Amino acid sequence: MSADKKPLLDLPLKVVLTEQGVSHFISRNKKLAKFRLADNVEESGVIMNKFAPLSLQRMILVDYVSKLEISMPEFVSSRQEIMDLSKLVVYSILYKQFDREIKAALLATDVVHKFNRANPSQLLDEKTNLSDTVIRSRMANKENAIKEATTEILKPLYEHIVNDSQLTPEEKNVYLLMTEKLLTKLSTFNWYIIIKFFKKDGFSEMLSTIRQTLQQYMEKSKIAEYISLMVMELALNCENANMRKEARIMYRGIEDSDLLIYDPDVRKKIIEELTQKGELVFISWKLGGGSLAIGKQGRLQITLYNKDDKFQEFKENVQNGKNADTGKKSLIDFYRDVPNGQEGTDLGLYYLSYLDEACKKVNVKFESLVNQFNSSDLTVINLIFNF
């Protein structure tokens, strides 16, 4: 949960906005930036170099963000920030999915069905279109009821977490915080329904379904840590491949490029050269399919590009299916093909097996795909999750 704790993240972040996001910024006379992404597509959005994680998360939660991208020659110095950003994205998707599931579950309860039959002019269903302003006015002076409902929902879950002897104190704290966060991120509409029926006949069904869904998402939240470790491991792998390639160009005749890239002074020179050439490693997070893309809201695609100046040519060849030098494989095959003894290989397989297992346990679909271009050491890695 460290993504929420750090007041500012210092990363060169490009934020691609959804149509809603663009409308929001334009209506407030905010000038949007135009920029080119790793795949050579031009987008409009905002560029952030230092940003508050919670501000970015708020933008994601209201469907203003469709894609995020960072590009750097090296990631070691920004390791914690990149992991925090990755966790923030995963948590944001979990919060949104949780909210959607809770809404569907609440609207399916008997107590809501009975209310709708008795009040056909005030139907509560998927088509109910109450603005936040209207809901907030109806929820005025309900703070105590929200606190009371929150306590009642969380009490048995808290007791279960605290008494679970298999959890470390740190894990208990993370779970306690996560359950609380999930509830606080619920939409005003969901809270309106909860408070409307709180303590009334039939509320126990709502209570039960909220607790069950909370339990599921508490388990799903474990994946955020594994994903951040996997992304960082892959970023370092791409970074080192980039540096080895550049070291072979800069220091012809020296066969062991590893000796060069781990020498601090030489490494600094290689980084300067890569920056000047624009041969960077890119990480992008593509979020769902927007609020209108049915069934795809819980999708996250993380792509790592090890980019060189021939990238566009290779990309077109891949899309046209005519590049015989391109190998399409799973991430596990990618790791198996890394030369023995290369640093990080075992660690990558270790993270991957944990991530794969963790996703299966909590019913998150996970697939990975790697395109490799042998003639240039260019690698494009896709990690796709459906929460």
Helix and strand arrangement:
Layout: E1 9-17, H1 19-27, E2 33-36, E3 42-51, H2 53-61, E4 65-72, H3 79-107, H4 110-118, H5 132-138, H6 143-162, H7 169-184, H8 188-197, H9 203-220, H10 222-250, H11 257-261, H12 264-277, E5 281-287, E6 299-306, H13 311-320, E7 326-329, H14 331-337, H15 345-361, E8 365-373, E9 378-386
Antiparallel strand pairs: 1-3, 1-4, 2-3, 4-5, 5-6, 6-9, 7-8, 8-9
Helix pairs in contact: 2-3, 3-8, 3-9, 3-10, 6-7, 6-9, 7-9, 10-12, 10-15, 14-15
Can you describe what's shown?
- The protein is of the alpha+beta class and 387 residues long.
- It is built from 15 helices and 9 strands.
- A 9-stranded antiparallel β-sheet has the order 2-3-1-4-5-6-9-8-7, sandwiched between helices.
- Strand 8 and strand 9 (378-386) form a beta hairpin.
- The radius of gyration is 24 Å and the shape is elongated.
- The two termini are 18 Å apart.
Descriptors:
single chain; 387 residues; alpha+beta; 9-stranded antiparallel β-sheet; 18% strand
Strand count, sense and barrel status of the largest sheet are: 9 strands, antiparallel
Please count the beta strands (DSSP E, at least 2 residues each).
9
Global outline: elongated
Total helix count?
Answer: 15
Report the uncertain regions: 322-326
The helicity comes to 40-55%
Tell me the distance between the termini: 18 Å
Instruction: Evaluate the radius of gyration.
Output: 24 Å
Mean pLDDT: 88
Question: How much of the residues is beta strand, in percent?
Answer: 15-25%
Order of helices and strands: EHEEHEHHHHHHHHHHEEHEHHEE
In spatial order, strands of the major sheet run 2-3-1-4-5-6-9-8-7
User: Class by helix and strand content?
Assistant: alpha+beta
